[in-house]
Each structure stands twice: as C-alpha cells, then as structure tokens.
Design brief:
The chain is α/β, with parallel strands linked by helices and about 350 residues long. It has eleven helices and 17 strands. It has two domains: about 10-165 and about 305-350, Medium-chain alcohol dehydrogenases, catalytic domain (Quinone Oxidoreductase, Chain A, domain 1), CATH 3.90.180.10; about 170-300, 3-Layer(aba) Sandwich (Rossmann fold). About 25% of the residues lie in helices and about 25% in strands. The strands form four sheets. Strands 3, 4, 5, 8, 9, 16 and 17 form a seven-stranded mixed beta sheet that branches. A six-stranded parallel beta sheet has the order 12-11-10-13-14-15. Helix 6 links the parallel strand 11 (about 210-215) and strand 12. Helix 4 (about 165-175) packs across helix 10 (about 305-320). The protein is globular. The two termini are about 35 Å apart. It binds NADP nicotinamide-adenine-dinucleotide phosphate and zinc ion. It comes from Linum tenue. GO terms for molecular function: oxidoreductase activity, acting on the CH-OH group of donors, NAD or NADP as acceptor; zinc ion binding.
Length: about 350
C-alpha cells in the first residue's frame, strides 16, 4: 500500500520485503516531515530480531507489504521538533518496537505503553496520521520523542542496538518478578539466541544462578565461558532434564518455534513462574499435570514500557552489558535472515546502516 499522507515528503533509502517469500531488496519510500513532537534520527545500526523474520515471512498473518523491518535502532538525532523535551541535535538515540500509543489510558499514563490497546509498532503499524510505519532497515527515521531513549555514552552503538528489543523484552519480566539486584535466585533461560543471550547476561549481572535450557549442545562451552552461565541443560537429553527437575525459581522462554511447555515446567520449583516471550506462530502445548502438581504459573509479556526501556539502557551502561553481535552490510541481510532461520548466529546480527564498521 503506497503512502498518500500529504506531509510525507522526505525520500528515504531502505530495504523491504515485497511478499511472503521474505526476500529483502532496496526500497525507496517517503517519511513524514519532522513534526513538533518528533525527532529525526540518522540511523547507524539496526539489529535483526527474529520478529523481523516472522514478519517478512508473514508467519503471524498480519504483514502489510512492502515491509521495512527493524526495531532495534541506534543513531544520531539530526532534528528536534519545538515541543520535544529531553533530546537535542547530536544526541545518541535508540528506538525499539513502539511508534505510537493513545497516551491517555492507564497503561500509557503508567509508562506501560506496550499494553495500550492502541499501540502501534515501529514497522508494520499504522501511525496517528494513518500512514504505515517503516522500520530501521533504512537510512533515516522520524519518531515521536516519547518513544525514543538515550543510549549511554559508554555503550557502543552497534552492540547496544539489540538492547532496544531483545534487551528490554527480557529485562521487563526480570524486573516485574523482582529479580533486578535482588537476593540470588535460580533462573532458567530457554533458547540461547538474541533474547536468550541477553537474558543470561542480565541474570549474571544481577547476581543470579543461571541455567540455559537449549536444543544446541554446541552452544554449551560458550554459554559457560563467555556468557557466564552456571549450568546448561540440553532439552533433548532426558537425563539432564530429569536432574534439572524442581531446581528453578523462574524461567524465561525465548523460543521462536513450536515446543512443548510440559518438560520446561517440570524444571520449576513448586510455585515457580514461567514467562513466555518467544512468539511461536503455533499454539504451544500446555499440559495440566506439571501446572497443578507444582502450583506453577505461566505468563507472557511483550517488550517493555518506555521508562523501563530507558532504565534498562542505563543499567546496561552501568554494568557494561552489550550484545554479542555479528555486524553485516545491508547487502547481506538476506544471508543473515537465512542463517537466523537456521539458528546459525551468535547471537544477533546487526546491520551497519551508516557504513561505519571498519571490519566489513
Ligand atoms: P533467535 O535469536 O532465533 O533465538 C531463538 C532461540 O530459540 C534459538 O537460538 C534456539 O536456541 C531456540 N530455538 C529455535 N528453534 C527452536 C525449536 N524448534 N525448539 C526449541 N528451541 C528452538 O530469536 P530471538 O530474536 O531471540 O526471538 C525469539 C522469539 O521471541 C521470536 O519468536 C521473536 O518473535 C520473539 N520476540 C518476542 C518479543 C516480545 O516482546 N515478547 C520481543 C522480541 C522477540 P537454542 O539453540 O539454544 O535451542
Ligand atoms: Zn524484536
């Protein structure tokens, strides 16, 4: 669908998928002029989240083509509208998944914009002016300042980019369950990908005992040596799963595909909580026995609010937490998406939109 909104006059170079084959190709499109509450950001880096892969392939049946993905954006502010507070030209800025919300409901007022029922996303959403939103696989973006955060000076712009989605998505459930700088608990992380590896880093930074539950035995050594995981359970190994029963207080499930929750629930202690943030397009199997015999809870969660996002960025600055990334050129996005689909990335691809990485 072409944009016809009158003030969409700025021509931007980007990369889009045209159909559910999900092939990404250069795409030139229009963005709105910088409004009173907008900032314009020259994009330097954009992470490739598994959500981008779901969306370009229309896994969830909601994609509006052409789609310009990307919601792990870092860049430099080049313009500020006259009603913008707290940002100035030259600031290092980050944009995650949120583009708009009603700003009036209880969720918006308590900075849980991510649960506003009028929430619109950074891409494949409908902005206040009726235009379709286009994401960070592009050179420049115009965003309402209320959905923008500061990137601390101590964080590199490339390795910080995935914090804007992967980071806040795993941070918020930890915060909601009082696991930030709290007494030591036993935490499990299911799926060691983009979200999972940040969850392990947060768990360790906040002083917990962290167990990775993975389908990939090849990830064990690095998970322990590099990310600091204390234990590693291969989910297809019945002996390891048996040994792990009733050991964990809290589990974050970041798996992108269909899988059974029963064996994962068995790893929780009585009263333990499983939070699902992975977004499988198929319904997950949830057997009743591990729930009722363990008085266990299963919950979900989507990203985090804007205050939480800034808090998470600041904590990452303080603890020096960044993502483990592989930087790719825009020309290599398709190859990166293919490798992501094959579970072949440690642990996040980041696109060098600004052409600043000397290693490429
Ligand atoms: P990712 O980098 O591909 O990581 C997913 C991990 O899941 C893989 O590394 C793999 O870990 C595991 N996995 C993959 N296929 C599996 C299977 N068939 N069975 C069991 N485990 C499997 O993806 P991501 O970017 O972290 O995103 C993960 C999911 O979260 C996606 O569905 C994404 O859309 C969703 N997401 C949700 C939110 C939210 O707000 N709730 C935000 C961002 C992303 P192992 O090799 O260790 O098994
Ligand atoms: Zn994401």
């Amino acid at each position: 669908m072409a944009q016809t909104t009158p003030n969409h006059t700025q021509t931007v170079a980007g990369w889009a998928a045209r159909d559910s084959a999900g092939e990404i190709a250069p795409y030139t499109f229009k963005r709105r002029e910088n409004g009173d509450t907008d900032v314009t950001i020259e994009i330097l880096y954009c992470g490739i989240c598994h959500t981008d892969l779901h969306q370009v392939k229309d896994d969830w049946g909601m994609t509006m083509y052409p789609i310009v993905p990307g919601h792990e954006i870092t860049g430099i502010i080049t313009k500020v509208g006259k009603k913008v507070e707290n940002f100035k030209v030259g600031d290092r800025a980050g944009i995650g998944c949120l583009a708009a919300s009603c700003l009036e409901c209880d969720f918006c007022k308590s900075s849980q914009e991510n649960y506003c029922d009028q929430l619109q996303f950074t891409y494949n959403g409908i902005f206040w002016d009726g235009s379709i939103t286009y994401g960070g696989y592009s050179k420049m973006i115009v965003a309402d300042y209320r959905y923008v955060v500061h990137v601390p000076e101590s964080l590199p712009m490339d390795a910080a980019a995935p914090l804007l989605c992967a980071g806040v998505t795993v941070f918020t459930p930890l915060k909601n369950h009082n696991l930030i700088e709290s007494p030591k608990k036993n935490i499990g992380v299911v799926g060691l990908g983009g979200l999972g590896h940040v969850a392990v880093k947060f768990g360790k930074a906040f002083g917990h005992h962290v167990t990775v539950i993975s389908t990939s035995p090849s990830k064990e050594k690095e998970a322990r040596d590099r990310l600091g995981a204390d234990d590693f359970i291969v989910s297809s190994n019945p002996k390891q799963m048996e040994m792990g029963k009733r050991t964990l207080d809290f589990i974050l499930d970041t798996v992108s595909a269909d899988h059974s929750l029963g064996p994962i629930l068995e790893l929780l202690k009585v009263n333990g909580t499983l939070v699902i943030v992975g977004a499988s397009s198929k319904p997950l199997e949830l057997p009743s026995f591990p729930l009722i015999f363990g008085k266990r809870t299963v919950k979900g969660g989507i990203i985090g609010g804007m205050k939480e996002t800034q808090e998470m960025m600041d904590l990452c600055g303080k603890h020096n937490i960044t993502c483990d990334i592989e930087v790719v050129k825009p020309d290599d996005i398709n190859e990166a998406l293919g490798r992501l689909a094959r579970n072949d990335v440690k642990y996040r691809f980041v696109i060098d939109i600004g052409g600043n990485s000397s290693s490429l």
